[in-house]
Amino acid sequence: MATTAPVHPVDEVPPARQLAAFGLQHVLAMYAGAVAVPLIVGGAMELPPADLAYLITADLLICGVATLVQCVGFWRFGVRLPIMQGCTFAAVSPMVLIGTTGGGLPAIYGSVIVAGLAIVLLAPVFGRLLRFFPPLVTGTVILIIGISLLPVAGNWAAGGAGSSDFGEPRNIALAAFVLAVVLGVQRFAPAFLSRIAVLIGIAVGLAVAVPFGFTDFGGVADADWIGISTPFHFGAPAFEASAIISMLVVALVTMTETTGDLIAVGEMTGRRVEPRSLSDGLRADGLSTVLGGVFNTFPYTAYAQNVGLVGMTRVRSRWVVAAAGGILVLLGLLPKLGAVVAAIPAPVLGGAGLVMFGTVAASGLRTLAEVDFEGNHNLTVVAVSVAMGVLPVGVPTVYEKFPDWFQTVMNSGISAGCVTAIVLNLLFNHLPGKGGSAALEAGGLAGGSAEESVDKSREEVV
Fold first, then answer.
1. Computed from CA positions of residues 196, 199, 202, 205, in that sequence, does the dihedral angle turn out positive or negative?
2. If you placed Cys at 339, which of 134, 220, 233, 296 could pair as Cys (CB 3.0 to 4.6 Å)?
């Protein structure tokens, strides 16, 4: 009697109702971050409201397309894991500098296109570096991702950075209420409802926020029903050397961040990322970035906040995130729907974000539990890497006297911590030490049976 092979949870297709609910939950988790980049860049360039609205709808459209490419995949593009794509914050400072010093949007888009092509070409090189990401490094990076995102949730909970009522007790109270709803649903609701606890928390929080005057839907009436982004809407791209160089540095940073996010999702879903799939994921990042330059938006990367949502809900299907990508495409084509989602107040997102981002950090600790810390320098690697990753988060101006290229790399806590973890792991565990020759073994770390066994299986795959 023939038996069918079991389907991996990543490839399972939930019923349509669950796809829609889980997908919407992912959209709400990343929406604020997705629209923040065009708002910041457009605001710094003093673009008129109509152009700002155009940047946002174009961004949402390509966010959806990029997410579909990453989750569904075609040929050698897409990691085929539950990964949400969005504009990277690492590019904000360079793009503002390019846009405000005479180059304008055409120079931004020219540099973005070149950076995207560079990512496509460099993807196989990064794929071969997977041997340098044992649990010691991946666990540290995942921990740093979660810690570096917590201030984002804190700013949301307080009312949103720059808001006139930032830190008002009523904002904190609303965020705490949403957090309590999310935890209550997770603890006491049936299994299906517990998996959409974030969505329920946001919906209940919004229902409470409206009568108390936290938000209004006035912008919904002003939004258009249909909006289509056309290629090179702001003019043909301009290719300026200085702009391209700064964006290439951003490309290296986003590739490092994406590598950490892809490995984190692979650990959470039980489908570990291999060199080939890592290359495919990075190649999809590059393609999405090229599309961003063509369709009037910005560089794209994996969104860490949705990594936390995958870990918290334990919904591992990539088709759920693909459904979220479809919703983003609709939001990009229907600005009025996007205006409805944009009306969700920041404290509501903050209450949900505290759970999601904390889950990312906890997942990093779970990965580090596999590492042996006895008789080696692994504790030093973790300690210094976390310190370097948290430094720009806790002291945002610490590197403001340094060159722009250095700030681009080190002002991102994720990339700073990731680079530090890789370098220290090489220094302490792969280079010859004072106790003898510590040759580069099969991806393993000196001194640790659990570490060696985990890394050996990964190296065999490599």
1. negative
2. 220
